[in-house]
């Protein structure tokens, strides 16, 4: 009868494997080093995975499935929003209407969820982008990127058709710019020991997207700097003495 795998040992093994993959890449990582890092024998490794590639595939599948779930939920939310509220109009953007702000908030929340997922799997994303060359996983991340560029581009096509987004920029350029930003942020996360303020990241990104993609006439100008208060000018000493002299010589 086969010995059951210890779930605690499995968690430690996966954590050690992820750390080793980041340091040496998928091809350079060795099972001996992974098991040594978590205090397991090499034989114990095979209770949990058939190979290091199979172990990495499990982690990647978890990440990919979670990402697909976020994307699907976001697309459903968008469809429900437009079915309930109708398409945006130019005045919604110009006046920052309630439904416009709700759409922005909904997108910001969705992007925060994406950032949180990227933070949780920042080591996996790093390996997919930089440590999976020559393996079956080397193009997986870029497949996710391509799908996201297509999704974001379609969103902006809809906004352009409703005349609530600038029409002088191709949707694929906007999609590539936004998704590329998230890819670079994911790469930065992999170098961070302390979790950044992801909520502020999401809001900052949407602030830039919102202000950069607004059609002409909808951009709110920056408030004018307040005028510097100046104290009343005091008369010069000579003028004061002249005034006193005149008052003495008067009737």
Attribute tags:
HTH_TetR, 251 residues, DNA-binding, 2 domains, HTH-type_TetR-like_transc_reg, disordered C terminus, Tetracycline Repressor, domain 2, single chain, Arc Repressor Mutant, subunit A, TetR family transcriptional regulator
What's the alpha carbon Rg, rounded to whole Å?
A: 30 Å
How many strand segments? 0
CATH architecture of the largest domain: Orthogonal Bundle
Structural domain count: 2
- Class by alpha and beta content: mainly alpha
- Span between N and C termini? 127 Å
CATH names the topology of the largest domain as: Tetracycline Repressor, domain 2
The helix content is over 70%
Mean pLDDT figure: 83
Reading off the top of the CATH hierarchy, the class of the largest domain is best stated as Mainly Alpha
Largest sheet: none
Please report the number of helical segments.
Answer: 11
Beta-strand portion reads under 5%
Are there runs of 5+ residues with pLDDT below 50, and where? 221-226, 235-251
Note the overall shape: elongated
Q: Topology as H/E string?
A: HHHHHHHHHHH
């Amino acid at each position: 009868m086969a010995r059951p795998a210890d779930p605690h040992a499995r968690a430690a093994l996966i954590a050690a494997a992820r750390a080793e993959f980041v340091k040496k890449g998928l091809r350079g990582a060795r099972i001996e080093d992974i098991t040594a890092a978590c205090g397991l024998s090499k034989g114990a490794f095979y209770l949990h995975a058939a190979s290091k590639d199979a172990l990495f595939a499990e982690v990647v599948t978890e990440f990919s499935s979670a990402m697909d779930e976020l994307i699907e939920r976001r697309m459903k939310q968008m469809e429900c929003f437009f079915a309930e509220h109708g398409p945006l109009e130019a005045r919604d953007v110009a006046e920052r209407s309630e439904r416009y702000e709700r759409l922005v908030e909904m997108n910001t929340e969705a992007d925060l969820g994406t950032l949180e997922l990227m933070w949780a799997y920042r080591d996996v994303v790093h390996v997919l982008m930089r440590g999976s060359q020559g393996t079956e996983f080397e193009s997986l991340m870029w497949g996710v990127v391509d799908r996201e560029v297509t999704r974001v581009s379609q969103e902006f096509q809809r906004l352009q058709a409703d005349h609530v987004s600038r029409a002088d920029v191709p949707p694929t350029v906007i999609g590539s710019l936004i998704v590329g930003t998230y890819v670079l942020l994911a790469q930065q996360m992999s170098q961070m020991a302390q979790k950044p303020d992801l909520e502020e990241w999401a809001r900052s990104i949407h602030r830039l997207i919102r202000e950069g993609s607004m059609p002409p006439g909808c951009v709110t100008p920056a408030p004018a700097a307040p005028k510097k208060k100046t104290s009343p000018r005091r008369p010069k000493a000579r003028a004061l003495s002249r005034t006193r002299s005149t008052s003495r010589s008067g009737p």
